């Protein structure tokens, strides 16, 4: 990530320290925008954006990419272009998933070296937490912040879960050691600290309880609504057997790991954000998240954030149900809103089982769901406790969210609201929102190349599937490269 000079308004932004002071913001701290009169009517998606959002500028590429080195622009353009070429993605995906990568051999070493110097360097923050922390320094100079995540995906036994927990705990220590405001969140994947088979079993039991409320789960802690009436339950086709004694013991170990990580984040005063996964294990992930939120989310600002994938048809209904239940219990909730990353596998599984896809039927329906959930959360945090991370690569969603925040009188630099994009993607949107005064973070995975390979493969698949976002970036980057070339010649 290249660096930029910090504008004065960004320097003022850094006075708000959600990394070290996320829970008790000063009531006397200045904001960057004046208070606005609230409009009781929600904005139509077809209305013009208010003048105050006009500074969300994507036309002035010189300003947008100021101080981004030409070398980094060239590399970013090349990598994004490569991941948009389907044959390259197909061949790369086949190679990385082939048996050739399972044993130590010259071809494997060559492939990993090539990946490390190209896609890994572009989409990942480093091979360890210390290096990732150094990468965050570049982000800070650009007016952005980092969300640190150890890039491991799944664990299959307690030994692996214990190792992964130590890496997550170390991530908190590194985040705490960095300058104030550098890190906005530490990210955790429940699939890395609880065996996958157990998450599938717990999800089956939770789904069956939804089908049959008389079905008792003696190990279940207090939680919040996990399902809505429209939630797909087809994964669990028959009554599951209760957890064995060993499974209950393993579940308690997983709970202890998550509790230790939550307590570590509370001590460091850094919010913890739980990533979402595919629907076969998401109910168990939500159960872990909401049970922890009941214990740790106090006052105005949440410690534990969950994730809502808005490409799911039941996303908005679940968000409303969970938020309403949490409000009744006096629990401030935080959510990251994303579109989703498992479209192909979700549709294939549903089709194989003879059910309709849980994914929205059209991309426009997904856009509408994301924007509706964004509007709901912004209205909620404008009038009360809670927080929201708007993780989007979509330019229009960014504009609409900025307009909604202005309409509600939410200051641009606001500890309750954060935009986020993946490291190495949607740079134009990240820089544009930051230049407009909003808090923006980059999702920054790190770890050995072999560990983060599943993440890199998903990024390649996603980049191929959402060419609108990467194409917009590449177009602006090329425009800036041409401008620089002409300036050098003339």
Q: What is the topological layout?
A:
Layout: H1 8-13, H2 61-64, H3 70-82, H4 86-97, H5 106-123, H6 129-141, E1 145-150, H7 158-177, E2 183-188, H8 196-211, H9 245-268, E3 272-274, H10 282-296, E4 304-309, H11 315-329, E5 334-338, H12 343-352, H13 363-383, E6 387-391, H14 395-408, E7 417-422, H15 427-435, E8 440-446, H16 449-465, H17 467-489
Helix pairs in contact: 3-17, 4-16, 5-16, 7-9, 8-10, 11-13, 13-14
Short summary of the structure?
GO terms for molecular function: FAD binding; proline dehydrogenase activity. This protein has 490 residues and is of the alpha/beta class. Helix content is 51%, strand content 9%.
Characterise the protein shown here.
With 490 residues, this protein is α/β, with parallel strands linked by helices. Helix content is 51%, strand content 9%. The N terminus is likely disordered. α7 runs parallel beside α9. The chain has an 8-stranded parallel beta barrel, surrounded by 7 helices. The two termini are 28 Å apart. The longest helix has 24 residues.
């Amino acid at each position: 990530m290249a660096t930029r000079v910090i504008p004065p308004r960004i320097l003022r932004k850094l006075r708000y320290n959600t990394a070290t002071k996320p829970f008790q913001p000063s009531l006397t701290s200045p904001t960057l925008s004046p208070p606005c009169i609230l409009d009781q009517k929600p904005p139509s998606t077809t209305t013009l954006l208010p003048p105050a959002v006009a500074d969300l500028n994507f036309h002035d590429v010189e300003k947008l990419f100021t101080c981004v080195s030409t070398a980094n622009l060239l590399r970013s353009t090349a990598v994004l272009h490569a991941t948009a070429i389907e044959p390259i993605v197909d061949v790369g995906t086949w190679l990385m998933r082939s048996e050739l990568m399972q044993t130590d051999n010259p071809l494997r070493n060559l492939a990993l070296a090539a990946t490390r110097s190209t896609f890994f360097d572009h989409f990942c923050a480093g091979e360890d937490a210390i290096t990732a922390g150094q990468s965050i320094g570049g982000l800070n100079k650009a007016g952005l912040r980092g969300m640190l995540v150890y890039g491991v995906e799944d664990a299959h036994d307690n030994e692996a879960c214990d190792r992964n927990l130590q890496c997550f705990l170390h991530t908190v220590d590194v985040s705490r050691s960095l300058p104030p405001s550098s890190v906005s969140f530490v990210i955790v994947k429940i699939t890395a600290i609880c065996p996958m088979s157990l998450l599938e079993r717990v999800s089956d039991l939770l789904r069956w309880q939804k089908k049959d409320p008389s079905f008792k789960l003696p190990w279940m802690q207090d939680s919040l609504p996990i399902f809505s009436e429209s939630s797909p339950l087809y994964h669990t086709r028959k009554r599951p057997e209760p957890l064995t004694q060993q499974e209950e013991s393993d579940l308690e170990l997983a709970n202890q790991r998550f509790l230790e990580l939550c307590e570590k984040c509370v001590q460091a005063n850094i919010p913890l954000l739980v990533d979402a996964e595919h629907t076969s294990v998401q109910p168990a992930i939500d159960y872990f998240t909401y049970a922890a939120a009941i214990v740790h989310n106090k006052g105005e600002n949440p410690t534990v954030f969950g994730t809502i994938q808005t490409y799911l048809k039941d996303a908005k209904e679940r968000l409303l149900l969970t938020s309403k239940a949490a409000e009744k219990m006096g629990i401030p909730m935080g959510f990251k809103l994303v579109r989703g990353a498992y479209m192909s596998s979700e549709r294939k599984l549903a089709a194989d089982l003879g059910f309709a896809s849980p994914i929205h039927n059209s991309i426009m329906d997904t856009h509408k769901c994301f924007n509706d959930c964004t509007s709901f959360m912004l209205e909620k945090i404008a009038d009360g406790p809670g927080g929201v991370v708007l993780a989007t690569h979509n330019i229009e969603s960014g504009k609409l969210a900025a307009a909604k925040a202005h309409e509600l009188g939410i200051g641009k630099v606001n500890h309750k609201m954060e935009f986020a994009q993946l490291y190495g993607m949607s740079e134009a949107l990240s820089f544009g929102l930051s230049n407009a005064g909003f808090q923006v973070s980059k999702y920054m995975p790190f770890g050995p190349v072999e560990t983060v390979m599943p993440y890199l493969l998903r990024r390649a698949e996603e980049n191929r599937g959402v060419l609108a976002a990467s194409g917009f970036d590449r177009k602006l980057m090329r425009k800036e490269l041409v401008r620089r070339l002409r300036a050098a010649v003339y």
